[in-house]
Design goal:
It is a single chain. This protein is an alpha/beta fold. It has a single domain (22-174, 229-310), classed as Rossmann fold (3-Layer(aba) Sandwich), CATH 3.40.50. The chain is 43% helix and 15% strand. The chain has an eight-stranded mixed sheet with strand order 1-2-4-3-5-6-7-8, with helices on both faces. Strand 7, helix 10 (253-265) and strand 8 (271-276) form a beta-alpha-beta unit. The protein starts with a helix and ends in an 11-residue tail after the last helix. The relative contact order is 0.13.
Length: 318
């Protein structure tokens, strides 16, 4: 009984410490709606801030376990910044369904890449005014990678950025790749791909209309289908590491290779590209084993090579 009591006490203490580390904040957009964001403190005197950006799912960023169990180790001694999307707060239950029925109507109407970038800039401006952080690191995967690139291209105070499995120059090429990957028969893939291309053209050429496809509304689809990632990456001036899994069926590794070759031809030496041939969109190998920890370790090594003494040292703790 004594051992069980001690174990329970340790569990309570651990939960209490953990809860204290996550500080909830709220700021406002120009339209008056709230932006929820969270600071996860490593220490009271940390001078490095790691902003981690989620993908395209309709979930609270605080409920994505991999962020605070794995991706925080990209720079272990940094404080973590997390920013919610439009219409979402930590009260939303977690779901793996991309077309969940309880996704907030405000999210479906307002969530777009441009809105996410605007929200992140508001939050970063707020945090920077406090003067604690000297070094800023961005990390994003999937749609979060796209957003990380957009933010880094738009501001001049990001010290280093890592984006993984964010796709190629054009979103339509990534969707076409995804369609082809899920069909064994070429004819079925061609038919669905042609249907999507018709949908994409309709969205790009039409004025806003009521739409909900794969958990997203018209404005999200219009912006994603219009976004030129090559143009975004041309504008990035600080160190950027782009990672792509060779077995990714959600975005096109081949088209990503082509985009990165184009950047190399343009002489963008601040951007580095690493392709993990054996890994998929979730950083798993063909056996389904996650190699996220190993990739995060590589990310950490890359950051240390770029940031040197400008950020907290992690070589003794990672």
């Amino acid at each position: 009984m004594r051992i069980r009591a001690i174990s329970l006490l340790l569990l309570i203490l651990t939960c209490s410490v953990s809860a204290k580390e996550v500080i909830t904040h709220t700021t406002s957009r120009d339209d008056g709606s709230p932006i929820s964001y969270y600071l996860v403190q490593h220490s009271y005197d940390a001078d490095t801030l790691l902003l981690i950006l989620q993908g395209s799912d309709c979930n609270s960023v605080l409920k994505i376990d991999s962020i605070l169990t794995n991706y925080k180790n990209v720079w272990p001694e940094a404080d973590i910044l997390l920013v919610e999307k439009y219409g979402i707060d930590k009260g939303l239950t977690y779901s793996t369904d991309p077309a969940r029925k309880d996704c907030p109507a405000q999210y479906l109407e307002k969530d777009t890449p441009a809105q996410r970038v605007a929200d992140i800039k508001v939050v970063l401006d707020t945090v920077r005014k406090e003067g604690q952080y000297k070094t800023f690191i961005l990390l994003g995967g999937s749609e979060g990678a796209v957003i990380a690139n957009l933010v880094t291209a738009d501001v001049d105070y990001i010290d280093a950025t890592i984006s993984f499995n964010g796709g190629s120059r054009w979103f339509i090429d990534d969707v076409s790749h995804s369609i082809a990957a899920k069909h064994k028969k070429t004819e079925a893939a061609r038919k669905e791909s042609d249907g999507f291309k018709g949908f994409a053209e309709h969205v790009r050429s039409s004025k806003p209309f009521s739409l909900e496809v794969s958990g997203h509304g018209y404005h999200w689809w219009h912006q994603m289908l219009s976004l030129d990632q090559l143009d975004t990456l041309k504008k990035v001036k600080s160190p950027l590491l782009i990672i792509q899994g060779g077995r990714d069926t959600s975005v096109s590794p081949q088209k990503t290779d082509e985009m990165m070759q184009r950047l190399k031809d343009l002489g963008k030496r601040n951007i580095e590209y690493r392709r993990y041939e054996a890994l998929d969109h979730g950083l798993k190998n063909s056996d389904g084993k996650s190699l996220r920890k190993e990739v995060v370790g590589d990310m950490n090594m890359w950051l240390r090579s770029k940031l040197g003494n400008t950020a907290n040292k992690s070589s003794d703790t990672y």
